[in-house]
UniProtKB/TrEMBL annotation:
Gene3D superfamilies: NAD(P)-binding Rossmann-like Domain (3.40.50.720)
Keywords attached to this entry: NADP, Oxidoreductase
Protein name: NAD(P)-binding protein
Similarity comment: family membership: Belongs to the short-chain dehydrogenases/reductases (SDR) family.
Segment forming the signal sequence: none
Keyword Flavoprotein set for record: no
C-alpha cells in the first residue's frame, strides 16, 4: 500500500460565524402543488400491529388497514446529515426527505456539489426541503450554532434525527504513520462524530418531550481489519465510534434519545473511488470478500437509515447494524 497522506483534503477549521447560517436551497416556486408520497405520520403506538387488529371493527372493511409503512414515516421531522454533500450522506438525506422530513446536509465546501444541487432541485419539485449548510464537524461552536439554527429555520422547533456521516480515510504504514495525519483522521472521524452527536442531543434535550434518533456512521473496519490495507488510524477511529455509540446510548437512552451505529462494508463513493481507481485489482478483491460477490451501492443505506431514524426501530438502542454483504462472516 502506498504511503500517502490522508486522502480526503484537510477540513478547514471554519472561522466563527453568526448564528444566521446561509443555507443553500433551490429558490423557484415548487412545480407541483401538493405531492403526498410518504405514508403520513406514524400511528399511535397502541394502534400498531396485532393490537391494532384486535381493536378494529371486524365488520368495517375501512378499518382493515396496514400500519407497517407508516411506522417508517418521518413526516414533519427535522433531520441533519453531516457529510451530506455526496456519497452515503446524500443518499440518506434524500431517503429522509422522501420519508417526509425537513433535511439539512452539513459539509465542508462553501457551495454544495452539482450532485447535491440536482437532488435538492428534485426535492423542491416535490415540495420538500433539502438544504445545505457549510460547516465543519471539527468545530464545536460552529456545530452548536448550526444545530440551533436548524431548529429555528425548519419551522418545526425540533431536532429529531441526526446522522454523523462525515468522515475521511487515509493510509500509511503504522511504523511511520505521520502523527498529524493520524490526529486529523481522529479529529474528523471520532471527535467530529462526538461533536455532531452532542450538538444535536443538546437541541433534543431542550424539547418539551425529549426524543430523537442519532445514527453514527462507523464502518465494518471498526470491528475487522481490512486485509492488506494499512488503515490503522481510520480503523481505530471507527472502533472508537462504535464504543461512543454504546456510551451515548447508555447516557441518553433514559431520556428518550436513541443512539445506534451503522457499519457499512465496501461501497463505491468518492472516498473509496480514490483507492479503486488507483488500484483496479481491488474491485475484484473487495467484491469477492463477501458472499454476495459485489460492492454495495450507496442506495443500500436508505432502508436501514430510515428504519433507525423512525419509530419502526423504537426499541433499537446502542446497536451496530452491519451492512456489508456479509464481509465479516469469513
Ligand atoms: N464508502 C464506504 O465503503 C464506506 C464504508 C464504511 C464506512 N464509510 C463511512 O461512511 C461515511 C460517508 O463516507 P462516503 O463513503 O460517503 O465518503 P464521501 O467522501 O463521499 O463522504 C464523506 C463526506 O464527509 C465530508 N467531510 C469530511 N470532513 C468533514 C468535516 N470536517 N466536516 C463536515 N464534513 C466533512 C466530505 O466532504 C464528504 O462529503 C464516512 O464516515 C465513511 O467513513 C464508508
Amino acid at each position: 500500500m502506498a504511503r500517502s497522506a490522508a486522502i480526503r483534503p484537510a477540513p478547514l477549521a471554519s472561522a466563527a460565524r453568526s448564528n444566521n447560517f446561509v443555507t443553500w436551497a433551490p429558490t423557484s416556486e415548487p412545480k407541483l402543488s401538493a405531492v403526498q408520497q410518504n405514508p403520513g405520520p406514524p400511528p399511535p403506538v397502541e394502534n400498531i400491529g396485532v393490537d391494532a387488529v384486535l381493536r378494529q371493527n371486524v365488520n368495517d372493511p375501512e378499518s382493515h388497514t396496514t400500519t407497517i409503512f407508516q411506522e417508517f414515516s418521518l413526516e414533519g421531522q427535522t433531520a441533519v446529515v453531516t457529510g451530506g454533500n455526496g456519497g452515503l450522506g446524500l443518499e440518506m438525506a434524500l431517503a429522509f426527505v422522501e420519508a417526509g422530513a425537513h433535511v439539512y446536509a452539513i459539509d465542508v465546501p462553501e457551495q454544495p456539489s452539482e450532485e447535491f444541487k440536482i437532488v435538492a432541485e428534485h426535492c423542491r419539485i416535490m415540495n420538500r426541503d433539502l438544504k445545505y449548510i457549510s460547516a465543519s464537524v471539527t468545530d464545536d461552536k460552529e456545530m452548536n450554532d448550526v444545530m440551533a439554527f436548524v431548529v429555528k429555520d425548519s419551522g418545526t422547533d425540533s431536532m429529531d434525527i441526526c446522522v454523523a456521516a462525515a468522515g475521511i480515510l487515509g493510509t500509511a504504514d503504522a511504523l511511520d504513520y505521520p502523527v498529524d495525519d493520524f490526529k486529523r483522521i481522529f479529529d474528523v472521524n471520532t471527535t467530529g462524530v462526538f461533536i455532531t452527536a452532542r450538538s444535536a442531543a443538546i437541541q433534543m434535550h431542550k424539547q418539551k418531550n425529549v426524543s430523537g434518533s442519532i445514527i453514527l456512521i462507523a464502518s465494518m473496519s471498526g470491528s475487522i481489519v481490512n486485509r492488506d490495507h494499512h488503515w490503522v488510524a481510520y480503523n481505530a477511529s471507527k472502533s472508537a465510534v462504535l464504543q461512543m455509540g454504546r456510551n451515548l446510548a447508555a447516557e441518553w437512552g433514559p431520556k428518550g434519545i436513541r443512539v445506534n451505529c451503522i457499519s457499512p462494508g465496501h461501497i463505491r463513493t468518492r472516498m473509496t473511488s480514490v483507492y479503486l481507481d488507483a488500484n483496479p485489482h481491488l474491485l475484484v478483491k473487495w467484491s469477492t470478500s463477501n458472499p454476495l460477490g459485489r460492492l454495495g451501492r450507496s442506495s443500500e443505506m436508505r432502508g436501514v437509515a430510515v428504519w433507525l431514524a423512525s419509530s419502526a426501530s423504537s426499541f433499537c438502542n446502542g446497536s451496530d447494524i452491519v451492512v456489508s454483504g456479509g464481509h465479516q462472516i469469513w
